[in-house]
Amino acid sequence: MSDDTSDDSRTEALAAVDAWWRAANFLTVGQIYLMGDPLLRKPLTPESIKPRLLGHWGTSPALSFIYAHLNRVIVDRGVPTVYVCGPGHGGPAMVANAWLDGTYSELFPEVTADESGLKKLVRQFSFPGGIPSHAAPETPGSINEGGELGYSLMHAYGAALDNPGLVVACVIGDGEAETGPLATSWWGNAFLDPRSDGAVLPILNLNGYKIANPTILSRIPEEQLVQFFHGHGYEPILVTGGFDGENPMRVHERMATAMDEAYARICRIWTSARDAKTLAERTTEMPPMIVLRTPKGWTGPVEVDGKPVENTFHAHQVPLSGVRDNPEHLAQLEQWLRSYRPEELFDSRGRPVSELAPLRPDGGLRMSASPHTNGGTVEPLVLPEIDPHAVVSEREDGTLHGSALAGATGVFGEWLRDVVAANPTTFRLFGPDEVASNRLQAVFEETGRAWQLPTVPTDENLATDGRVIEALSEHLMQGMLEGYLLTGRHGLITSYEAFVHIVDSMFNQHAKWLESASKVAWREPVPSLTYLLSSHVWRQDHNGFSHQDPGFLNVVVNKQADIVRVYLPPDANTLLATMDHVFRTENRVNVVVAGKQEQPAWLSLDEARAHVDAGIGAWDWASTGTAEDDAAEPDVVVACAGDVPTFEAMAAVALLRERVPALRVRVVNVTDLMKLQDPDHHPHGLPDDEFDALFTTDKPVIFAFHGYPALVHQLTYRRTNHANIHVRGFIEKGTTTTPFDMVHLNDLDRYRLALDVLHRVPGLEAKSGMRALADEWHQARTDARVYAYEHGEDPSWISDVPVER
């Protein structure tokens, strides 16, 4: 509605807003309570009520109030808007509004826009075989599940990136505002470029209570609340006070004025930024936010059984809980439902009355039908060739494997720079102040870090249009990336391996979203969420025990097999081939662990591509035995997964080749960890016959593993030869020490692996000279530690690893 709209037309528009709000509230209550008869054609009976009353009323009326007012602004201004629902249990309100929009019936044709469809709508909510209570993937227009609070605002900021002209309205509950992830999300405005990005409109709903306690922000004096948000870079627009007993139309008028002011301010900021030639010419207006104070459970029962309910925590879930057994509760519920005057809102066939039509935006402007909330328009990622970045290993004698050294993430960073250049508006890199530390700094040759705040001359690599976003919050970085991916763009998050645990729960929620979305026919696929974890457990040269934890892998592998993938590339070329693969995937969570320090390049690029395609394989060139033995089963399998475990395994095999030359050793490298699991449990699982061909059915397997040893056993316990698999990995021993001493502390070093072979190959330990050899290797372990503790570095013989025959 334009600023010069007549009083009569504004009154008419706000009357439609009020009717829409009442209709949404009526449908919300109906979903929580009713089995059928959604329009109350007959008086309520106990049989009309669901046997299990589930859902949350307290937050729902404010969500619908905001939805109705946003619809008015969209119709009036034509500004595409996405609604991000932060309050976790607002599912019935969001479903109700999507049905009023008409979107729900379009996507679920059986839930028609009439009384028959309404019966299905109310019955399915939180009902066996129906829909969940949250604004889940089944809810049109949703990109934020809300099952766990704290992620709404960061999702909103991610959705706004590279979406010029889009407003992302994010409703934040005052309970959610107390979470750590949400607390960091206020800073998302430091990264949005108003020239090329959309805008986020935070709407903080202060309804005063959580499940059983008051909320902190609702009790802060209003002056302090304003100062708080000024400090975060927002101009708060207050819609507070006077809700109890006030004429609803006056409340609507205040909210409409606030919405108009917010959208006008957003448009001025956009216009100023796009017209200005320099930063100094831009407007200094701060982006708006709205603080909306409403009673919890607004318009619901004021009192139940003599206790206050509305505007207390008692309104949080189901205000009237004994409706089937308590006639007074049943009567109160009917009174509550009829207070919305449904006869004014639905016609004789149960369709929304025509008076609501002017409040319904057209097509994709409906928030429940926004293409941005269903994968956007995904543009395929342009991936440059990786060949120019390959590490070439070649000695003078023509041998290849392991002769060149390279830091895997540094090599990948140079290709990532080219990826950024090839996708200037559809790819972003996110990291918690660790992009350069993880050796990806080559990207700064192409772009800077996104930054909208003041700068000083000593700053480096900051740019208003930067494609890298860094803030020291893993939550914020992952949340922005999720919002970016869910709206159809591409990206990568990099983190120290130990600290990615901070987002364990965020990973869980995103994996669950993808799993649920895969079952919703109208949900389009979205680009995969990919983690690159470096500065990993085995190489913490600047840090110590606190930075040593590979357990994120354990969290990941327990999710649905169709969703998760784990890759442990052993060298730079394999990392290149791995990333080239994962960037092409959809609807996945890919976890890639790679080191940043120099390691041998074991494979040529062609070999690396083949190895990534296979995910697992025997390295015949590294195995031992005579040519005549090649077709025979080995005496022992030395397996490895991860760059440092591979290095130590290769060194162990070199020791065995030199000192026990008759021993037949097969080297097996695993780069796709899920190959270990049987194919009944994971689509990448290696068939049993192929697994047995690699690992044998009865020979000892010494497995050098990047993570906790139990994980390999978890993945392989159904395999034929599982009883013979002996795993070495991280056993919670670490400190700031040398690379070899770190593996020594955890019994993953080459001597320990070689000693395991002596011990586990039947009869080998008893052969002549083996006891002396074992003593020699034990002494070598000790000597290496003594040298490191005296000189501060590993001895030279540790890094010299002959691997060629």
TrEMBL record:
<protein>
    <submittedName>
        <fullName>Phosphoketolase family protein</fullName>
    </submittedName>
</protein>
<feature type="domain" description="Xylulose 5-phosphate/Fructose 6-phosphate phosphoketolase C-terminal">
    <location>
        <begin position="596"/>
        <end position="801"/>
    </location>
</feature>
<dbReference type="InterPro" id="IPR019790">
    <property type="entry name" value="Xul5P/Fru6P_PKetolase_CS"/>
</dbReference>
<keyword id="KW-0786">Thiamine pyrophosphate</keyword>
<comment type="similarity">
    <text>Belongs to the XFP family.</text>
</comment>
<dbReference type="InterPro" id="IPR018969">
    <property type="entry name" value="Xul5P/Fru6P_PKetolase_C"/>
</dbReference>
<dbReference type="Pfam" id="PF09364">
    <property type="entry name" value="XFP_N"/>
</dbReference>
<dbReference type="Pfam" id="PF03894">
    <property type="entry name" value="XFP"/>
</dbReference>
<keyword id="KW-0456">Lyase</keyword>
<dbReference type="InterPro" id="IPR009014">
    <property type="entry name" value="Transketo_C/PFOR_II"/>
</dbReference>
<dbReference type="GO" id="GO:0016832">
    <property type="term" value="F:aldehyde-lyase activity"/>
</dbReference>
<dbReference type="GO" id="GO:0005975">
    <property type="term" value="P:carbohydrate metabolic process"/>
</dbReference>
<dbReference type="InterPro" id="IPR018970">
    <property type="entry name" value="Xul5P/Fru6P_PKetolase_N"/>
</dbReference>
<feature type="domain" description="Xylulose 5-phosphate/Fructose 6-phosphate phosphoketolase N-terminal">
    <location>
        <begin position="11"/>
        <end position="377"/>
    </location>
</feature>
<dbReference type="InterPro" id="IPR019789">
    <property type="entry name" value="Xul5P/Fru6P_PKetolase_ThDP_BS"/>
</dbReference>
<dbReference type="InterPro" id="IPR005593">
    <property type="entry name" value="Xul5P/Fru6P_PKetolase"/>
</dbReference>
<dbReference type="Pfam" id="PF09363">
    <property type="entry name" value="XFP_C"/>
</dbReference>
<dbReference type="InterPro" id="IPR029061">
    <property type="entry name" value="THDP-binding"/>
</dbReference>
<dbReference type="GO" id="GO:0000287">
    <property type="term" value="F:magnesium ion binding"/>
</dbReference>
